[in-house]
């Protein structure tokens, strides 16, 4: 077991080195579909991965709007980047508050008119280490799934219609995978419903989230076949992954010139407040795939799941 863990670490470290090298290679002129007038929004960006994605996108020359639920902290975070010469703006946004979402969208429309890139990073996790409490499950599912969904729906009408396609990137986790080394989902009925992309609907995803929360209330969730570690967080990200596929399917039916591409990615176990700083990846490396997806020259990529710049299975 120790040997296999060491091999995995070695493999991961090698890939991260490759990505660090790739990050130093500038985009060529024909790859750069964006300009300084291209507008990107990153939610939950006052620290950690979100802050780093803002920094990297602004470093590539985009105009980036940093959002945060806490206004004072957000203003300070934006100021740090502004003082570094980056074109970064700030507006408060609480993805759990419909009036905050409306106010934000109104401000975007008045000040910028449109958005080209939306990165949904805002999220919560109340378990660290081996803790697996479901005490805050409603907050976790409401924020990570429903909050993400609500801001996406509000922002879609503001996304610029252009030949290169607008982009939505959802920050998620391998913990939400239906199959794979990290997945401990034992509920076969849930897996069967969520894995079949052809019959997958938003209603199915909502019902899955509701079913989990109902079992939490009834005290039966432990025998429900849900993941055994970081259960509420894993279920919330399972829902985000499934919704990414539903949305990609819907948006791909739009005519040429009106496409919006939506993908999700796992940043890895990053050294941030969310992991209790127990992660093994820097925020810079964790943010990389999200930035790479936002800037992809190929607009045909949609409805996919990525980690370390490689496609992985849902």
From TrEMBL:
* Alphabetized GO MF terms: oxidoreductase activity
Q: Give a yes or no for keyword Oxidoreductase in this entry.
A: yes
Entries under Gene3D superfamilies matching the protein? NAD(P)-binding Rossmann-like Domain (3.40.50.720)
Enzyme Commission number(s) of this protein = 1.1.1.-
| EC class | oxidoreductase
Identify this protein by name. Short-chain dehydrogenase/reductase
Mind telling me which InterPro entries this protein's record contains?
A: CBR1-like, NAD(P)-bd_dom_sf, SDR_fam
Q: Work out whether the entry's keyword set contains Oxidoreductase.
A: yes
Q: Which UniProt keywords apply?
A: NADP, Oxidoreductase
Protein family: Belongs to the short-chain dehydrogenases/reductases (SDR) family.
Instruction: Name its species.
Output: Cardamine amara subsp. amara
